[in-house]
Amino acid sequence: MKKVNNIAVLTSGGDAPGMNAAIRAVVRTGIYHHLNVFGVMYGYKGMLTGEIFPMESKSVANIIQRGGTVLKTARCKEFYEADGRKKAYENLKKFGIDGLVVIGGDGSFKGAQKFSQEFDIPCIGLPGTIDKDIAGTDFTIGFDTAVNTAVEAIDKIRDTADAHDRLFIIEVMGRDAGYIGLHSGIATGAEHILIPERKTNIDDVIDDLQANERRQKMVNLIVVAEGDEFGGANEVARHVQERMPQLDTRVCILGHIQRGGSPTTMDRLLASRMGYAAVDALIGGTSNVMIGIVNNKIQYTPLDKAVKAKQKIDPEWFKIVKILAS
Amino acid sequence: MKKVNNIAVLTSGGDAPGMNAAIRAVVRTGIYHHLNVFGVMYGYKGMLTGEIFPMESKSVANIIQRGGTVLKTARCKEFYEADGRKKAYENLKKFGIDGLVVIGGDGSFKGAQKFSQEFDIPCIGLPGTIDKDIAGTDFTIGFDTAVNTAVEAIDKIRDTADAHDRLFIIEVMGRDAGYIGLHSGIATGAEHILIPERKTNIDDVIDDLQANERRQKMVNLIVVAEGDEFGGANEVARHVQERMPQLDTRVCILGHIQRGGSPTTMDRLLASRMGYAAVDALIGGTSNVMIGIVNNKIQYTPLDKAVKAKQKIDPEWFKIVKILAS
Amino acid sequence: MKKVNNIAVLTSGGDAPGMNAAIRAVVRTGIYHHLNVFGVMYGYKGMLTGEIFPMESKSVANIIQRGGTVLKTARCKEFYEADGRKKAYENLKKFGIDGLVVIGGDGSFKGAQKFSQEFDIPCIGLPGTIDKDIAGTDFTIGFDTAVNTAVEAIDKIRDTADAHDRLFIIEVMGRDAGYIGLHSGIATGAEHILIPERKTNIDDVIDDLQANERRQKMVNLIVVAEGDEFGGANEVARHVQERMPQLDTRVCILGHIQRGGSPTTMDRLLASRMGYAAVDALIGGTSNVMIGIVNNKIQYTPLDKAVKAKQKIDPEWFKIVKILAS
Amino acid sequence: MKKVNNIAVLTSGGDAPGMNAAIRAVVRTGIYHHLNVFGVMYGYKGMLTGEIFPMESKSVANIIQRGGTVLKTARCKEFYEADGRKKAYENLKKFGIDGLVVIGGDGSFKGAQKFSQEFDIPCIGLPGTIDKDIAGTDFTIGFDTAVNTAVEAIDKIRDTADAHDRLFIIEVMGRDAGYIGLHSGIATGAEHILIPERKTNIDDVIDDLQANERRQKMVNLIVVAEGDEFGGANEVARHVQERMPQLDTRVCILGHIQRGGSPTTMDRLLASRMGYAAVDALIGGTSNVMIGIVNNKIQYTPLDKAVKAKQKIDPEWFKIVKILAS
User: Fold this and answer.
1) Which of these, B190, B48, C208, C72, lies nearest to D162 by C-alpha position?
2) Average pLDDT of the segment spanning C96-123
3) ipTM score of the complex?
């Protein structure tokens, strides 16, 4: 087992609340174990451009509660080519870096996997994405915050829906995964939740709205994940308005507010625990795995298995949605 | 001076946070003065359909902190015709109602004005609108909450803008008035604020973005009021992308979250004070005025002067925006 | 198996955010299964005084997001005597109630257990307590909200601690359990966390504060659970000030804010799922169990085993605290 | 008129939300006018120890939304002695500083006043205190945030008060001024508000609680400013419990959470405008005044008149409190 001495940490892909807490945990756990810890700016791009700098305990003071990422993030096409990765490797070598922690989504893990196969730098991935759709972990850093942000926003919208007896069709994030939609929909008592994991039958939705209209239930919320196969909120609204033009129908697309904001307690704990475990893994000689939490225990998943996973959603939830919104 | 004995209260037009606090103040002040107080559901519509019910002190318990309006609100075209108003009058008379408090915007005041001219029911208006664009008052019920909601949302977006070095173009409410845009833009350090009260020179915006790009300032926020004469956020984005396709530009339309949520302290105080003053005015024999607050003093404005007012915005604010975002 | 036709629901013990979401789930699931559902006011006290009323779907509209409990809660000594329970039984019988859902803590479960042994009314318990210290479930309704409230408060305190280079000693709720303390302490980067599950060595705390002083680290947070065996925050502060009078030390006792407020997404989901499962259990002929969630699966625990449990806290967390706050 | 070239900014006294927004405004307005701007750490203490450093536009990026103060604050007895001020002056001179902006309370202004009398450095004061009790301004930086924080906390407490039919006695900040108490009490519908500006008649409070008890109104909130002449919340509770031992009475002392947190829109605007005006004043040759806002206009008050002012509170507010909480 090769001893690790100098590690680097970076954030990659879309930002997620809790990334700063994870960076903090990596840096301080590294220092505790007498490693030198380096920060890489702008994800893989900073590895190519050499934006790499030593971090101390103080570098991560007072960031556990901040949204975004102090190391910034960016896309980097060059890293997906051999020449780019070589340049990245050479830059890391200048600093003697012999271990890398990548906080990001499944796309970022693919890059890390490729990089560590070509060069002798072990990589550990931490699942940082609001979408909670990575195989090998029950939770991802940022999901709990994103869904709570969505819920707070929808609570506000319900005030207006209630005041006006309106139908609101609300689009939440989730291009491939419906977890934000499912959880925020249940938590706000939405009448319908449309997500990619489940085929949308728009006729059922219309039937139900019509039944509600007959019994004078005019306030209705439909939560739509952006990746629902029927289309986003605008598409659903277009369809509803065609069929029920008499309804006072409005669309809200929550958008990027779901990515930012101070992380919830759960995301801070998750990030802290995962960041700590990442350094532990590197020191212990483990490499090319993603740190996950399964049934409240740390679990390693090889980076090439830590792919975007359309987890099976328990059908009982849909029964609960139907019953509780009645 | 005719003695008032039975008053009614309703909310009309778009809902605004603090309307419930105003209803509570009207009800409890009325009861304190030994009046009977009635609630009218769905604004003027409830006057026509007779959805009128007696309210007690308990009817408004624990609502001061709630968004929306417990009396609901709706549009009502019939009320803008003579026959409709006659029907409304007859319904009020069934309950012996001899005074009316209307919480809403300038459109609602026009209706009240007309109604009280035709019939012998004095009306008092309370400015309830998030837009803060009514002549005769420094503040409207709901504005402070709406602008704080916008600011919290934009703060979250800035986390992401910062993480990615992005330009965000954010649309806030304000079809005719730019106050939400102006205040939220200053409070979040927006680089540009586009509002209806000021001609938008898009070329200046582009020049400035280009200057920022040259000095590596890539994080930029542009706040656009929906009523800006150049168009909303999407239109601005279309233009920016045409001229600066290299920028990572995103659009967020905050939408209806700005109408809901628990009112701020200021909106609760404003609503409480205005509701109290409304009953005071009715008892004192005043009628057909809107209650305003000017320089922290209650001020009456005749309902027909309480129109949508494009208040002059001090040009110094634009200088401050420019300097502080630099 | 006896068929259940009329069920009642009540909240008992200290209130916890999410209780309303649980009530809503019980009521609507009951109605879905064609049961009559009754609400009991003020916990067991309402069973004795007969404050029992039929609930409809509408009775629980728009409460999923509210803190507190619409059914109120109270202590009731009489119920812990045979005569009291007999009276309670007779009142339930007047309404034909043949099933009972009790949302509360372990004390409330003991009452339910006793009651169902004496009379033929099956009881189901739902763990509603902010302390997360009930055997047979990984989470309790209210914990996630309480800990997030504590974290938001401590975040604010850190702003001041940072501005002044101060030591803050912050007391959070938890008479018998340290989960709120542990989670909020980690999430806010507290330097020390004192909880009942772990012996507090105050000399170690002082040593550490002195070491921090030597290296000019003057901002320190100590989070203390009210039930820590050394004493609460005031006792800790007294000791620190005696030994280190030169420090600028302040005490904050967060107190009852931790019980209220709109429930988080997680608490709403947990409460919805558990309320649904409670009715399911009653219909299925199960009785005298508490509904818990273990490893994300519903699990039944006999009411007499659902006692206050000092769960073993993984010692690794204390290592993480020490490392990450360094 | 002497030209100003190099200015310094510091924060002094208790921290208040919005101080960072004010620092940002001073720095960027200074730079815009081609001044060199320096930051002084730890208030006057940093002037004595020479902790003075040049600030750029970037130094204040992304701080407008942060609580606390990036320049930190501290008490400094030495500055209130002639020798201390001399030393401070010499340190400023090393940097060529010829203008000073002091963000703080009336105590800090006295120091600035004295300093500028002895030495040729013009000083401008900005009122930064959560207490809103400075003569010469309608608002102080931090007040709006503090009062909203108190209101959010009391809203949560009301959830519990309501669930349990309890009396809560809540202490808010305000050693000399009752504005936080008055505004938060009205906004949360408190039954009684005890503040230093008004003699507390505890017998009236007891009478009223007894009257409420007779009519079964058991939920009561009493908001007490810490500086009320009768004593704080504990003293009030002691008295109530003596006279009405049957009540379920609880005390909450909100404490330091009221100082921290992200500033509200109003505090950010106020701070931005005042910071801008401070530099404007220095450039214009004005010195030794505090910048205030009166009736929405900038107003200068000589530093020695900008003292703690027990502003007269309109007695009508107390009538409103009594009526609306009924």
Assistant:
1) C72
2) 95
3) 0.96
